């Protein structure tokens, strides 16, 4: 019975983890590097790799590191540590081939009006599932971090029906930054260790204890 209970705990934990919210904070990507397959089992253009979420970026999507941390990013008060996403041509397209549902959200800082569009096909194709408008707010009401022109980071998001597979991050080139891109929630988050991982660990520990007792 104890063995069955332990296995049930692990199965429940893995099920929760499979549906856990994913947050991209871009930490570890190179300054000015193309993100490319940084979150897709590969690397950015500088050879850095992040967690493999099966999420890839078009060649326009770049990483920016805060100038206070040795990069060239003209921003402050970023929601997580020191790295954000921006683009210098076209728009930044993200592909998530496995798809996601429920909601999508992020933080942004922009000097111009912009919009972010969510589609049910890859490469910003198919049916438009959500269109999130952005307003110019980059330097409004800033406090804290003393350097960086883009200092106001606003949380936005949307819920939608269907399965989304790509996102088109728009705006004026070199005038908008994005951070803490969150899948599965209309409210952007940080990057905590999922509680389900602790639950998995507890389940494994329970199995090991049961096996030791059986061996005795």
Descriptive account of the structure:
A 5-stranded antiparallel β-sheet has the order 2-5-10-7-8, with no helix packed on it. Strand 7 and strand 8 form a beta hairpin. It has 216 residues and is an alpha+beta fold. Residues 1-19 and 192-208 have low confidence and may be disordered. Helix 1 packs antiparallel against helix 2. The protein has helices at 2-18, 195-215; strands spanning 22-24, 55-57, 61-65, 83-87, 92-100, 103-110, 114-121, 125-134, 154-159, 164-169, 176-183. The protein has 2 domains: 1-20 and 194-216, no CATH class; 21-191, Jelly Rolls (Sandwich). It is 18% helix and 33% strand. The radius of gyration is 20 Å and the shape is globular. The relative contact order is 0.22.
